[in-house]
Amino acid sequence: MLENSFGVQLSYASVDAADGADPRPAARELLVHLRVPAGLIDADAAWGESQQEAVVAIPITDAGFVLTLTDQDVIATTLTAGELRTAFADAGLTLWLQDSDDACCDDGGCDDGGCDDSEADALVTESFDEASDISAEFDAAPVRISVFSHRGPSAARLIAQVNGLDVEYIESGSWSLLRFESEDPTNAGVAAKAELPVIELNRVDDGGDWFEVTTNGGVHQFWPDAERHTVPVMDLEALTVPETAEICRRLLSDGDGSRDELVQIAAHSRLDVAGAHRALQPEALDGVVGTRARQEAFLAAFGVPADLIAAVFDEAVSSDTDLEVLRFGPDGWGSTLGEILVDGMSGFTPLTRRDRPLARVAGALRRNRLLAAALSVGELALGVAASRRRGFSRFVGILLIVDAIADLAIGVVRARRGR
Predict the structure, then answer these.
(1) Using CA atoms, how far apart are residues 135 and 106, in angstroms rounded to an integer?
(2) CA distance 101 to 271
(3) pTM for this entry
(4) What are phi and psi of 178, to 5 degrees?
(5) Among 303, 328, 327, 306, residue whose Cα is nearest residue 318
(6) In terms of DSSP bridges, do strands 93-96 and 8-17 run parallel, antiparallel, or are they unpaired?
(7) CA–CA dist 358, 352 (Å, integer)
(8) Closest CA to 207 of 294, 282, 286
(9) Is residue 179 within 8 Å of 312, Cβ to Cβ?
(10) What pLDDT is recorded for position 7?
């Protein structure tokens, strides 16, 4: 145990070499020499067009000190962020690391430990411009979207109409999957409590896939590959103090705060927190290996059926499964609302509530068309009788007549379609 407790967080800092060469080997050697238990992001990626940025995850205390280890493998907090930057500069590298005391200052940026408003405004403006450029590039890229929830098919019809997209709908047990593709932001609608959680997997061709998880506790975003290739710069297994090794391992695996978010989700929805977190951890620290495997493990942690998970990655659902694919398009509001009426209550009933008495009665009536027709005729007769009276009874009678006629018309449509 540490004699003194203090807060530590990971600070993600980029490293540049003056000649533009790959700075990762030199940065790793320097961090090992200084005994900083840092992590190297994308450590093994080939340096070139697809990899031109080196990033290190450095543990920083709330007081602005860099976490280091003594020769006895005991945690120390004597190295400042400024001293670490100086050590990198002496090695011919630039470390873009900032802390609370010098958030606006880099080497030569300011002399008195502060910075004026013009420098801060320039930094904010530059960051905003870069973010706008990234957003513009992202908007043009098609995104393959898979949405898991407990929604029924009528929700898929509405999503198709609202967004002007073709949507595929698949059910398995109490879960459903909506598959569609879009280059623009989409509106998946507001789910009822019984339909939550809504787990949206967004996949793009150039990587960077992400999840959006919605519960009644809010919306959470996760990038399963963000820490995939992060590796410790030090050999944690070689540390002689087990407690130190565990702290360093926890820092690199939990430092992005994803586990805390998963715990928040688990307070509102069924979730295997450990299983989901393994899908977000670095592969070098017992994380799930491979992009697809990480996404599958994350979904499985919520209890999503395996056949529905497999359908995400298969353009055509395998013929050896019992899954049925329903396809909906933007057919106009009139047609959409008409189809929703034909779907009836079962179309909007959350899949987790289909075994409730009311939903079961509605399903039984839909299967037994003669019984449903007889009830509609009875309702019509009752409405006619009530409409002949005065006052409120007449109003109720008219409503019963309208409802009975609508039910009979819907029943005819269903019979013709064999539904």
Answers:
(1) 27
(2) 40
(3) 0.76
(4) -110, 125
(5) 306
(6) antiparallel
(7) 13
(8) 294
(9) yes
(10) 80
